[in-house]
Amino acid sequence: MTLKTFLPEHIYTYVRDHSVRESDLLRRLREETQKTSEPQMQISPDQGKFFSLLMHLIRAVNTIEIGVFTGYSSICVAQALPAHGKIVACDVSDEWTSVARRFWKEAGVEHKIDLRIAPAADTLRQLIKEGKENFFDFVFIDADKENLDIYYELSLRLIRPGGLIAIDNTLRNGEVLNAASTDQRVVATRSLNDKLISDTRVEICMLPIADGVTLVLKQ
């Protein structure tokens, strides 16, 4: 499995084996995704379990996913939502989301997922126009890093006070520490990290899960 982690492999294996009860469906989705051209875009099993637990803890009902890929994270979240729970799923790829749709159907969660194929910023602005500010319980941001700040600001308007935003890949394989990097994904991620630490609208916690996950709690 292609996986970014800051733990030694034997310790990560122990963590995964002692915290994740991965279903056969999720295992098959993960294995199918590993055969694609972009396997590193999939979240790790322990990350999926973490999000599932978060949904239960905050009693999430309405959520947003920015960047669907093949649907592993959306299944983890959808299965943890109540029967009337919903995910607005934002992506631009019919190819990748066709895999997601197939597994959503098999998992019995497709009725919970409102897939919108369009630039995510456009979808988020449309939700604001629909009167959905301060409405959502949780947003997962895992899309193109160059637009991170736009996604963050729009998400902050959409989640309710006490709601959570989870931002993926906030360590960029450690490259956020490399001040000489000109990779725009690294530059954008480092810029948002620097912004979040002084953003008094939120409380934050950066976790070294997978490639770094930052949790943002709206005040």
- The level of helicity is 40-55%
**H/E element string?**
HHHEHEHEHEHEHEE
Strand runs, count: 7
Task: Tell me the overall shape.
Answer: globular
Count of alpha/pi helices? 8
What strand line-up does the widest sheet have?
Answer: 3-2-1-4-5-7-6
Rg, rounded, reads: 16 Å
Beta-strand content estimate: 15-25%
| Largest sheet composition | 7 strands, mixed
* Coarse structural class: alpha/beta
State mean pLDDT (0 to 100 scale). 95
Query: Which residue ranges are poorly predicted, with pLDDT under 50 across at least 5 consecutive positions?
Result: none
How far do the termini sit from each other?
38 Å
What features would you describe in this structure?
With 219 residues, this protein is an alpha/beta fold. It is 41% helix and 20% strand. It has 8 helices and 7 strands, in the order αααβαβαβαβαβαββ. The protein has a 7-stranded mixed beta sheet with strand order 3-2-1-4-5-7-6, with helices on both faces. Helix 4 links the parallel strand 1 (62-66) and strand 2 (86-91). The radius of gyration is 16 Å and the shape is globular.
Q: Which features does this protein show?
A:
single chain; 219 residues; alpha/beta; seven-stranded mixed sheet
Brief overview:
The protein has 219 residues and is α/β, with parallel strands linked by helices. The chain has eight helices and seven strands; from the N terminus they run αααβαβαβαβαβαββ. Helix 4 (72-80) links the parallel strand 1 and strand 2.
